[in-house]
Amino acid sequence: MVKKIPIGPFHPILEEPEFFELHVDGENVTEIDMKIGWSHRGIELLSEHKTWDQVPFLVERVCGICSCSHPFAYVKAVEDLLGIEVPLRAQYIRLIAAELERLHSHLLWTGLAGHFIGYNTVFMWAWKYREPVLDILEAVTGNRNHYAVMRVGGVRRDLPQDEIQGIFPILDQLWKNNELLTGAIVDDPVIHARTKGVGVLGKAMCREYGALGPTARAGGYDVDARRDHPIDAYDKVDFDVILCENGDVFDKAVVRQLENFESIKIIRQCLEQMEPGEICAEVHEIPPGEGLGIYEAPRGEVLHYVRSDGGNMPMRHKIRAPSFNNILTNEYSVRGSTIADAGLITAAVDPCYSCTERVGVIDRGIDDRYILSEGDLIRLSQEKTEEIRKRFAKE
Amino acid sequence: MLDPIYIVYYLIFPGFLFTAVAGLLTTWVDRKVSARVQWRVGPPWFQPFADMIKLLGKEVIVPVGARRTGFLLWPVVGLAAATLASMILWLSNLWPGTSFVGDTIVVIYIMTIPAISMILGASASSNPLGIVGASREMKLLFAYELPLVIAVLTTIYKVGSFSFQAVLAHQAQEGVMLGSVSGVIAFIVAIFCTQAKLNLLPFDIPEAETELAGGSHIEYSGAALAVVKLNMAIMFFVMPVFLITVFWGGIAFTGWHILTSILKYVAIVVILVLIKNTNPRVRIDQAVRFFWGPMFILSVAAMVLAVLGY
């Protein structure tokens, strides 16, 4: 009998190259082995060779879907370093772009999840409903994707005041469409049969693995960086953090669907509260120091750390994307399921592989691989720091 | 001695050529209706033919470790069986005199051969996903055959004969099977079994694009894949015709019957496509439970009602 089933590195269920190896007994999965690193692009190093103003364009490309969250966290990190206040109008525009991104990301996932269980009608409909979101994004930022709207100190582009009224009817329609889609998912008995009790990740396990975002909230683990570390205008808008209890695939879908309503609510409030004004604070130079930016991306908390030596490039730029935590939860949630469910469970954390690519420690004893222990990683890190220090000492 | 006319029947009409064209047109109906349901435009009518021609021109790759003969031969066996089933069905519909005793059994039997050929072909491919697909196909085959046969037996019981000629004659005289309670229940069961037999959602478990990346036909390419696809297209054509013959008065090409026959056929295809587009894929254990549970009970209920005269 077959003992190992490969999912990846290239597989219809994965939008990006990634490798999961299922150890199976018949149709039942006993173990999952994950291997990341197929699309490593060295963004952190690249970022150290770009000016402070160029980096937002680079980190936008960390992930095509979170192309607002990464720049958002980055500019917040730099602003944390600078200690400046962003003009109010810019804060609202940032929130609108970021929440629209969450909307389009969640709708995209709903569609893909439908596709993964063979429900292509949901796939097409969810993506059709996602289209108006991209239209609003185009109206607000000028681009449907890779918005290029974030800038240290504010935003790059003002939202024309006369376009605001045109956005409200689209949001109303979006609300209705989202209600329809939510109903279609919550009431479908076959979807229940496929997703309820599948890939359960309870509260305790969420905490154990450090799960983030909708993956954690579906299991009842109450984390949301928007509420816990409110940045920009998040303390001026009213929204709920959606929580479920079971942590199965169904709950993960429901959390995302209900979060769409919260996002629409936030966008409405932003549009209503916005007043004409400046959109960018003056920033002349970045002094030496370090800054930390935290933002709740659609997949969970994204963290950017920057360090400056007073030059025009970051000396160190560290990114931690939520999928890195989330895909590790697969180890627990896939075990004991069937092959049919394994793909769905790995997809249910809404993995974004391109942002997770880095060196990871692999469990010993499964295969003979090149393994880095914790001590090795620390040693490597110290060597790198030493190298950077020498380089800067020379200059 | 076999009459040479049967070679024409088998190869041209109503055999291979006719079924292949009709089957590919059926897959076009499937693709078009699916596209409209999913808010897309859908392909033009000749798209399946273009696909077929394109595939025939491509290289056939036999994977290392596969059993070459079996891998390439089984799809052809499946194709031959599907064509034969179609020929018997059409001959008995068009010229009832060609019907023979027990041809319903023969057709039900032959129609399982494409599935079996897929199982054997996938097993010969030595691909782990293909083998999982084959094992699923096998389980699915065991699951749906039982209720399907009982559903067809409902009609056979009412007619009192195993030949299509008698089935059609009975329906022509006393009304179609769908006019009775037992007939309707048996038809519903048969529709779901057809869904599984054609590997359509929610029962496309052996292929499961997003789980097994094509499963049972993952390793086929070029002309071999064309044969596999044609096989599926022909089955997509044969099964609705079989259902019409057994439950809905058959197909006739005389006068206004031409129109009703085509309408009946398209109606069944559209029902199948709509079920396909409004359901996600179920797991294999759920599928087996579904066919051996509710579907089996329903088919037995239909049988009991038929015995009681409803």
Low-confidence stretches of chain A: none
The CATH topology of the largest domain in chain A corresponds to Cytochrome-c3 Hydrogenase, chain B
End-to-end CA span of chain A? 62 Å
Q: Tell me about the biggest sheet of chain B?
A: none
Number of domains of chain A: 2
Percent in helix of chain B: over 70%
Mean pLDDT of chain A, nearest integer? 85
Q: Tell me the fraction of residues in β-strands of chain A, as a range.
A: 5-15%
Number of strands of chain A: 8
Describe this structure in words.
The complex is a heterodimer of chains A (395) and B (310). Chain A has 395 residues and is mainly α. Chain A has helices at residues 43-47, 55-60, 69-82, 88-116, 120-141, 164-186, 189-195, 203-209, 213-218, 225-228, 249-273, 322-328, 330-334, 339-348, 374-394, and strands at 4-7, 19-25, 28-35, 150-151, 154-155, 289-297, 300-308, 316-320. Chain A has 2 domains: 2-38 and 338-394, no CATH class; 43-320, Cytochrome-c3 Hydrogenase, chain B, CATH 1.10.645. Chain A has a 3-stranded antiparallel β-sheet with strand order 1-2-3. Chain A has a 3-stranded antiparallel β-sheet with strand order 6-7-8. In chain A, strands 4-5 form a two-stranded antiparallel ribbon. With 310 residues, chain B is mainly α. Chain B has one domain. Chain B is built from 13 helices and no strands. The longest helix of chain B is centred in the middle third of the chain and has 32 residues, at 128-159. Chain B is globular, with a radius of gyration of 19 Å. Chain A binds chain B through residues 2, 4-6, 11-13, 27, 114-125, 128, 188, 190-191, 193-194, 338-343, and chain B through 34, 37-40, 128-129, 131-132, 135, 201-202, 204-205, 208-213, 277-286.
Strands, helices and their partners?
The complex is a heterodimer of chains A (395) and B (310).
Chain A: E1 4-7, E2 19-25, E3 28-35, H1 43-47, H2 55-60, H3 69-82, H4 88-116, H5 120-141, E4 150-151, E5 154-155, H6 164-186, H7 189-195, H8 203-209, H9 213-218, H10 225-228, H11 249-273, E6 289-297, E7 300-308, E8 316-320, H12 322-328, H13 330-334, H14 339-348, H15 374-394
Antiparallel strand pairs in A: 1-2, 2-3, 4-5, 6-7, 7-8
Chain B: H1 5-11, H2 16-37, H3 47-56, H4 68-94, H5 103-110, H6 113-124, H7 128-159, H8 164-174, H9 181-197, H10 209-212, H11 222-247, H12 257-277, H13 284-308
